[in-house]
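hey can u check if this looks right to u? its 73 residues, i copy pasted from the old doc so theres a chance i mangled smth
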Amino acid sequence: MKEEVEKVLEMVRPGLQADGGNVELVEVTDDGIVKVRLTGACGSCPMSTMTLKMGIERAVKEKVPGIIEVVQV
């Protein structure tokens, strides 16, 4: 499952990098929780929660069955 999540992150990463940020996969738990770290401009952006939930989480849940939530660590 971790490899599938990483593939989705590779798809959303160019959009984040265009704004000076990035996302790093930290862990995928057995119960379907994806833990990521937003870096660069995304780490301090006030819109990072929206980016995480409406962008990254939506894409991951759509493409990888069994994922329940994406959280920032």
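The radius of gyration is 11 Å.
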